[in-house]
């Protein structure tokens, strides 16, 4: 039996990158996986991949900017598979990489909606079936960018800081229902990684060299197992935790200052 046998999981943004890696890892461990993804093409592809592996999976078109859409995805999990045991909040919609003083209110609103608000909505919707079963696992995603104050990510850093606060609050309050809530701070070769690598041939090598382990992470092989740990009975006594799964990048950190930005401009 797999570590997640008889469990039902919902993964937002599971159509690619880290979300896909987590969804495939869950399927490999026996979970029925709801692919909560807005892109029907990639979402159905992952659904099919898990089925071909012998797992159970269902694509549910989900727009994380919509509370109603997120709640509908949770209902689909319960209606199709009888419960919802595991929630992974992975999806978000990025904004342009510009300096903080150039970030607009609309950019911040978009990031807060697709990251913090979406996580809030999904957690509160998933809480109902988890409370009824007196068992639940919630995995949120944090970022090393917030810790380093990464340049050009002011809105993203703000939202991810909120994710940690929400994770800890829910862990503190929902433990009485046997619901654990933890966060992962990952780095992996997802869509953004390959986009940057395509623009700069040296990016992949520099990225790997910055990590004590000397390589970049794989969404399924490196991030997936950490999510499985938090989603399974192995982590039954762990809650409110934030785990770096980044090849050790959080140890040295990194300098994200763009070239051409003067140290002093006054």
UniProtKB/TrEMBL annotation:
Q: Does the keyword Nucleotide-binding apply?
A: yes
The record's GO molecular-function terms, alphabetically, read: 3-oxoacyl-[acyl-carrier-protein] reductase (NADPH) activity; nucleotide binding
Q: Return the EC number.
A: 1.1.1.100
**For NAD(+), which residues are the binding ones?**
18, 37, 63-64, 90, 92, 156, 160, 188, 191
Report any one BP term from Gene Ontology: fatty acid elongation
Keyword Oxidoreductase part of the UniProt annotation: yes
Task: Alphabetically list the UniProt keywords.
Answer: Nucleotide-binding, Oxidoreductase
The similarity comment for this entry is: Belongs to the short-chain dehydrogenases/reductases (SDR) family.
The entry's protein name is: Short-chain dehydrogenase/reductase
